[in-house]
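Incident log, support desk, overnight shift.

02:14 A customer reports that sequence design results differ from what the structure should imply. Their input is reproduced verbatim below. On-call engineer (initials T.W.) acknowledged and began investigating.
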């Protein structure tokens, strides 16, 4: 005859079983459902580390699906635990769902909003930028986050300022070429000088505004003054830091100030820094080709 478990001992059995069930449920909650980023990457890279992995889009373009493990490891996201699925939210299993987009550009733009989840402030700034305005007008080549920062191989934005002009130069080729030969561009490329302005110093980063507007023009002297009125910075290069204060007292400077104070929306041709010195093509005053070389002032 089988031995029966006393009734008074059953609660203990239920307690143990209940504990095991609860522990298993907690283990499979979303907190534990996703593996650490490195393990997730290893799983994804078991296929995507193949340099020959690619697919053909409806447009006929070949889309490479290769991801370099070494470059991914050095990106800003991977070491911080940002896993693949954080951006590729529609890919949670294998086989993957088919790609719905017609071409590479359409695919790139589809991931634009993914950056918003972690970078809401900078994402919001881009919505008011010149680039966003161009995109809204129908130009789908207007840059998005990944065009400037990259996708899988994103590096800290303060890593090597020398990369900024060349990044902008991917679209603004003529301006980049001119800048390279300027006093600013030359100092950046030859000496990696941290003081000289790059594109984002003057134009901004995520909230880039239209440089053709009257407000941008009026603000230019103050923009130049952020460096050229800096006594400590200018003294390193034997340059006067008084140029801005002298300009402000000149007829040109007073004219700009009066228009800005009384008629800010009226277009006017009061001379500002770039009218004389140039924009991307600024040269040293003693350069024979400089627009402010004494021999060229009356030309």
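02:41 Re-run completed on a clean worker. Output:
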């Amino acid at each position: 005859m089988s031995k029966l478990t006393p009734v008074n001992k059953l609660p203990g059995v239920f307690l143990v079983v209940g504990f095991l069930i609860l522990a298993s449920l907690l283990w499979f909650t979303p907190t534990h459902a996703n593996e650490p980023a490195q393990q997730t990457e290893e799983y994804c890279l078991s296929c995507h580390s193949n340099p020959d992995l690619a697919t053909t889009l409806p447009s006929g373009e070949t889309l490479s699906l290769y991801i370099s493990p070494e470059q991914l490891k050095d990106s800003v996201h991977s070491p911080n635990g940002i896993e693949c699925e954080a951006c590729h939210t529609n890919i949670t299993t294998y086989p993957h769902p088919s790609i719905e987009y017609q071409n590479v550009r359409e695919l790139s733009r589809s991931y634009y909003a993914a950056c918003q989840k972690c970078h809401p402030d900078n994402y919001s700034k881009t919505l008011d930028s010149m680039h966003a305005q161009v995109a809204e007008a129908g130009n789908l080549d207007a840059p998005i986050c990944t065009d400037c920062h990259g996708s899988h191989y994103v590096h800290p934005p303060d890593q090597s300022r020398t990369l900024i002009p060349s990044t902008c130069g991917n679209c603004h080729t003529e301006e980049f070429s001119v800048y390279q030969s300027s006093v600013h561009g030359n100092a950046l490329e030859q000496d990696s000088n941290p003081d000289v302005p790059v594109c984002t110093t003057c134009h901004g980063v995520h909230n880039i505004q239209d440089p053709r507007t009257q407000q941008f023009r009026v603000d230019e002297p103050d923009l130049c003054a952020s460096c050229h009125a800096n006594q400590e910075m200018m003294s390193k290069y034997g340059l006067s830091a008084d140029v801005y204060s002298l300009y402000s007292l000149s007829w040109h400077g007073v004219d700009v100030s009066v228009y800005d104070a009384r008629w800010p929306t009226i277009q006017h041709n009061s001379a500002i820094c770039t009218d004389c010195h140039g924009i991307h093509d600024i040269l040293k005053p003693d350069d024979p080709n400089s627009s402010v070389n004494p021999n060229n002032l009356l030309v």
